[in-house]
Specification:
One of its GO terms (molecular function) is metal ion binding. This protein has 10 helices and 6 strands; from the N terminus they run βαααααβαβαβαβαβα. By secondary structure, the chain is of the alpha/beta class. α3 packs across α4.
């Protein structure tokens, strides 16, 4: 059965990828470099800013040490916070409130597993009045790797287990909500089933990778997915 639903952040909760792309472009310009068409989507989507910047610089023959990457990451984060604070209305995805209500009504736990840094996530959650629903947030600050590696998801399960020891939570009892191929790969590598939401990639691309795919979050039939988990659990017990 499902015991927890783990959300990605950028591209699932907030439609802010255009902001991130703009800020990455600005950082490269300050390095006298130019982002190529499609390069952001190929190199950065679903990954941490640190890994994104490291690979973009490396592909241009620039080897950046960890201190310099931290400096660039922090600079981008300051610019992101400034832009978000200046927005009159956050570009949250429609149906998010209803979906969170469905999850909470089903007595499932919620968490966020993201490659964004905590400062950015906390700002959006506070402004959107969603912070109370996400007690567990695993951000880029918490891990040294990035999606598609599963470390972030595994750490989220560990922290949920610490917060709710009575759950005896296993990765296979978690449902991940993702919008990128790297994110889907990370959740699957952690042993989770994944819903792909076609906010960032086309539906057909996500459909090849995820267990379920929807165009919009409010289309997701949580009851049907719970039935799938229950039937699989019953079959396992009968073997």
């Amino acid at each position: 059965m499902i015991k927890a639903v783990l959300f990605d952040f950028n591209g699932v909760i907030i439609n802010d990828e255009p902001i991130h792309q703009q800020l990455i472009e600005e950082i490269l310009l300050e390095e006298n470099l130019v982002l190529k068409p499609g390069e952001y989507q190929q190199t950065c989507l679903g990954r941490s800013d640190r890994d994104c910047l490291r690979d973009l610089l490396a592909s241009r023959g620039r080897v950046a040490d960890e201190d310099y990457l931290t400096k660039l990451q922090q600079k981008k984060a300051r610019s992101y916070v400034e832009q978000i604070e200046n927005l009159e209305e956050l570009p949250l995805y429609s149906g998010l409130d209803d979906f969170i209500f469905k999850i909470r009504s089903s007595n499932l736990k919620l968490a966020i597993t993201s490659g964004a840094i905590r400062k950015e996530i906390d700002l959006v959650l506070e402004r959107a009045k969603l912070a109370e629903f996400f007690k567990i947030v695993v951000a880029a600050d918490d891990i040294t790797t990035s999606k598609p590696k599963p470390d972030g998801y595994l750490l989220t399960v560990e922290r949920l287990s610490q917060e709710y020891p009575e759950l005896n939570l296993q990765p296979s009892e978690c449902l991940a909500i993702e919008d990128t191929l790297a994110g889907i790969q990370a959740a699957k590598a952690a042993g989770m089933k994944v819903v792909g939401v076609a906010n960032t990639y086309p539906f057909h691309m996500l459909q090849r990778q995820s267990n379920w795919t929807v165009d919009y979050l409010n289309e997701l039939e949580l009851d049907r997915i719970q039935e799938f988990y229950s039937s699989n659990s019953d079959e396992s017990e009968g073997e």
